[in-house]
Structure formats: C-alpha cells, structure tokens
Design a protein that fits this description.
The structure is a single chain. The chain is mostly helical. It has helices at residues 8-18, 21-24, 39-48, 56-65, 86-108, 121-129, 150-154, 159-169; strands at residues 114-119, 139-144. Strands 1-2 form a two-stranded parallel sheet. Helix 5 (86-108) crosses helix 6 (121-129).
C-alpha cells in the first residue's frame, strides 16, 4: 500500500523485500503444481511451510491496489460443478449475466489498457457477449479453461504472464501477481 508521502517506487521496493519475486510467480515454482498429479506434493509443501503464501486478504488488497478487479460470472452460487449443472445454468449464471456483461462492456469502453482474464466457459460466454472475444488494443483477452480442470490450465502458458506481456507492450506497468 502507498503510504502518505511515499512513492510507487517505495511500494515496489517494499514489495520486493516482503514478497520476493519467486514467491509472486503463480504455479510452476520448483516443479510445484506443473500438473494435477503434483498437487499432493504442493499441498504438503504449503502445509509444511516450505512455500510461503500471502494471506488471501493481503493478496487481494495488493491486487486491487494495482488495478485488478476480481469478478465472477455469478456473484452467488449454492453448489458448483465445473461442467455447469442445471442449477447453475438456469439459476445463478443467467441472473447475474446482464450485470456482468454490462460491467465488462463499461470497462472496455473506458479507453484504458485492460486485460480480461477469463477462466471457464461462463467467463468466455460473458466476454463474448460483451464483444471482447478479440478486442483491439488497448484491450486484450486471455481465455483459459476453468482452474478446476487443472491439466488444461497448467498445460498452457501462465495467463498472468500473458497479461503482463500485453500491459508491457503498451508501456504499462505489469501486475505483481
């Protein structure tokens, strides 16, 4: 967080001290979580304290401070199935869809550089409805399968690296994921 009288550089130096780069990189650290088969080893390492993780609230606050908006395709859900069961497809998802699409379209019309990371079919559908399947600069879309389908997600380029590459190509600061 930027302290009164502080600069962005102060924040970056503090972050580098508290959250070294090797801890900010999502997945694929020292062979951890390179595939679904690695999750038991990864979980054991987390529980043993071998992998330092930020507290979820601190992580979310840091991302928000860098301009990240976390937005689900459904803001409520009583049960989940990665293949989308009838309860989701006829209940929660359609209820929230108009709001989510409006938010995405509004952000896209802001003229600011934005990278939309879409995880799963519901997110892909909302990005498509908002006209963001193949947006033009300064916008970009990085679609991925739902994280619950680990093999498909972990087998592709890290979406956070893709996001930062796009931001940097526009002369923008990358996000410290």
């Amino acid at each position: 967080m930027l302290r009164p009288g502080g600069t962005r550089q102060d924040v970056l130096h503090e972050r580098a001290r508290v959250h070294p780069a090797h801890l900010r990189r999502p997945y694929r650290r020292d062979g951890y979580a390179a595939s679904f088969a690695d999750w038991p080893r990864t979980l054991a390492a987390i529980e043993a304290g071998d992998i330092a993780l930020e507290h979820p609230g601190e992580l979310a606050d840091r991302w928000v401070g860098e301009g990240v908006l976390l937005l689900n395709s459904s803001l409520t859900l009583t049960r989940f199935d990665v293949t989308v069961d009838a309860h989701q497809s006829r209940g929660h998802l359609p209820i929230w869809r108009p709001l989510i699409v409006k938010v995405l379209a509004h952000l896209a019309g802001s003229g600011r550089p934005i990278v939309f990371l879409g995880f799963g079919d519901a997110a892909a559908g909302n990005l498509e409805r908002a006209g963001l399947t193949r947006p033009e600069a300064p916008l970009a879309t990085v679609p991925r399968d739902h994280p619950a389908v680990a093999e498909k997600v972990l087998g592709r380029e890290n979406p956070f690296v893709s996001c930062n590459r796009h931001l940097e190509s526009l002369g923008e600061r990358p996000i410290a994921w």
